[in-house]
Sequence to fold (674 residues):
Amino acid sequence: MSYCGSRFHTVRRPTREVAVGSVKVGGTNPVRIQSMTTSDTQDVAATVRQSIALAEVGCEIIRVTAPNVQAARCLKDIRAQLSAAGWGAIPLVADIHFLPQAAMEAVEHVEKVRVNPGNYADKKKFAVRDYTDADYELELERIYETFSPLVKRSKELGRAMRVGTNHGSLSDRIMNRYGDTPLGMVESALEFLRIAESHSYHDIILSMKSSNPKVMIEAYRLLVQRMDAEDMHYPLHLGVTEAGDGEDGRIKGAIGIGSLLMDGLGDTIRVSLTEDSVYEIPVARAIADKAMSLWRPVPAAGPTTDSIDPYHFAKRATAVLDLGDGATVGPENPPRVIARVGSLEQLPAALAGLNSPLLKDTPAEGLAVPVASPAELLRLRDLLAATPARASFLVLDLAPALRPADLAELAGAARLRLVFLRRFAGAEGAELAAWLDLAGRGGHFVAVDAAPADFAALAPALPGHSDRLLLTYSGAVPAGTDHPVGAYRRLLEIARTHGIAAPLWIRNTVGTTIRGDNSFLSRLIEASLLTGALLCDGAGDLVSLETEADATRATKVSYNLLQGAGARISKTEFISCPSCGRTLFDLQTTTQRIRAQTGHLKGVKIAIMGCIVNGPGEMADADFGYVGGAPGKINLYVGKQCVQYNIPQAEADARLIALIKEHHKWAEPEPATA
Ligand code: SF4
Fold:
């Protein structure tokens, strides 16, 4: 059963409307933007100040942590002061972990309560034990007893509720039966949902968050499939937890949230950044606006399904292409990065720039350059003869007027592997065959840039050529209703049906842009949506970011996109929480300090968490964890195992580094380069 109306169009999933105070979520309402305060909730003035700051920049729903009953009581004053300041229409959400008593207090004061099914009724902490069916039933009865009072009171008061599952904090019961999986996350929420429905309470929104975009994408899709099967139509709150800060945090958030919004899923979103929460709002706004601009009615015709399994990640099987100098492309290889230069004149500098210290660990493996005429081909030949070739391969973006005969000399003499990139119309089968012939004779390749309809006409002649071909599309979203991800999915589906296993080159171009203001943020989100959604589908063997004029910058961002999607790790991975009122140290400065000391450890994953709420489960994905244990005290983890408790914060950085060394993951940083 499909989880969405179309994977080629954005058909919004129909949901029931849930009123969060005066803000309605789901149904026909726009995607709502939300965030969270980071102040101590019992510091009422600071929390009101932060809430107003968030409301002023466009946050529509504000979450405040209620870690205990005293904090939950403070929500009454926070609500009253916010309303008195003229922000009565902004709903507040109490964030609850562990304490039903805090939830019962909070529900009296705020418009919505968020519960985490992994810890609402579970006092024990991440123990491993076996549950018989009888044990499991007893557990469900216990949850029913613990959760029902909040459901009943929410119903009486007209409050909304979020059942917010986190990948990192699944209950022992769920872990035992389903493991640390998207299915476990879904079952965890459904257990609570069924209890709420047994009381005829339906004002519920659900979330399935993880710091890993692939996991959260799969979990939300699975949740919708399961809810549809049970005739449940609750709205979704989307988010990637512990996404980190800066460009990396924005990329991760956009990949996870954007992929689902393009599927038509999602009614309210939060972009979690380890930054002041006001900075989350423009990012969330831009992602939501792009997605909403894609909303379409159900298409009358066209494909409704593809062969990609949306619930389980598997990399697409492709032919293996040796593009030269170690840049092999194929299922066992990481996606390769291509940098584009705007003209032949820029090529020598770009070739030299590949040796830039800035790109030491992240070099562009291919350079793409436009070639418009036979005269330019001669200049290119001379340039290549005069410039030591540092790229693994060179992509020639050929004007349609150029013929294979024009390139015969260059193709025969080139010291680099060449990729002939050309836009093909559906009627140009003979032309494509001539280019393939030229490529085959010189050990070169052809990148077919074609709209899906054109590719469908070309495809019948291509099955025997997968080892010489790359597939791509850089043009405007085809006429009709496709989004760029849908256009690429169509290419892949056409390739599959014709037995074409050519690798896919994801090109982020002005043509593939959905809409936006051409700011860097807008371009970054666009690239995250297209590249991330496809990589999380398991498709994509080469990537280029052609919306950036600076090839060095484009290369850096391309590697960050690959890292965000978990497709190619080129630097330390930081999983850091956005902080909230539970935070036990300054997340922003701590993250920056630890990054300064460990940012050179390629491939090492370090989790930096303000507290243990999202817990060891989230750190199972990390090699090391730095977690607030008590005020001024840090706990250090190796994987999900706490190995050092209550270290004074002043010693924690050094102890973390010692731990990394002990586990043979340390490397000395190279001396700074001028
Ligand atoms: S992990 Fe961070 S954001 Fe999550 S509850 Fe703890 S301090 Fe707050």
The chain has a mean pLDDT of 91.
